[in-house]
Write a structure and sequence with these properties.
The protein is mostly helical. 84% of the residues lie in helices and 0% in strands.
Length: 206
């Protein structure tokens, strides 16, 4: 039997975590603006897959263990920081070229993998699920409740980021973006780069 009270209690926490702007939000936004809703939705699916993976680890009790392994957290932070810096460099590089949007789209990374790697290399996700599910799941929790939590953990970010992608992929919004593409890509690249630098800097304290 599914513990609906436990599930409902987690919804506000998930919503607060999702709505707060982070690397995932900016990556979905930039992808939807530059490549349209389909690419943005695939990026959202990649993020949701990463969330589901960490949620499954949390249900198995492994996420908390991983979050307590300082060396592993450091490795994830370094990998995540370097990946975000690479994404930032690609965005800044695209803003300095005169290639058409269609040509740029061919060179762009796979949107699903971009979303997946963005989420998997974010150590905050490990800590979030490790602590949240450790408190929310009791030893008596049924298998159905655990599976429902994993499903909810994936569906909510998928819906949210698809909504973000749909809003930013509107023709009027994309047309405006095209006229300001270079400036927006520079700003987005700087923001993503700062997230990467922050991750690398935080790895020093591990």
């Amino acid at each position: 039997m599914i513990d609906s009270i436990a599930l409902v209690g987690l919804v506000p926490v998930f919503l607060a975590a999702m709505i707060s702007p982070g690397p995932d939000f900016f990556i979905v936004s930039q992808t939807a603006l530059s490549r349209g809703f389909a690419a943005g939705a695939w990026t959202a699916a990649g993020i949701a897959s990463g969330v589901a993976f960490y949620a499954a680890l949390a249900v198995l009790g492994l996420a908390y263990v991983l979050s307590q392994a300082a060396w592993l957290t450091m490795v994830i932070k370094i990998a995540g920081g370097l990946y975000l810096l690479w994404l930032a460099w690609k965005m800044l590089q695209s803003s300095s070229t005169t290639a058409s949007s269609e040509q740029l789209s061919v060179r762009h990374r796979n949107p699903y993998l971009t979303g997946l790697l963005s989420n998997l290399t974010n150590p905050k996700v490990v800590v979030f699920f490790g602590s949240l599910f450790a408190a929310a799941l009791t030893p008596q929790a049924s298998l159905a409740t655990k599976l429902a939590m994993i499903g909810m953990s994936a569906v909510l970010p998928l819906l949210w980021f698809c909504f973000v992608a749909a809003c930013l992929a509107l023709p009027a919004v994309r047309e405006r973006y095209q006229s300001m593409r270079d400036a927006i890509n520079r700003i987005g690249g700087v923001i993503i780069g700062l997230f990467g630098i922050k991750l690398l800097w935080s790895a020093r304290s591990q």
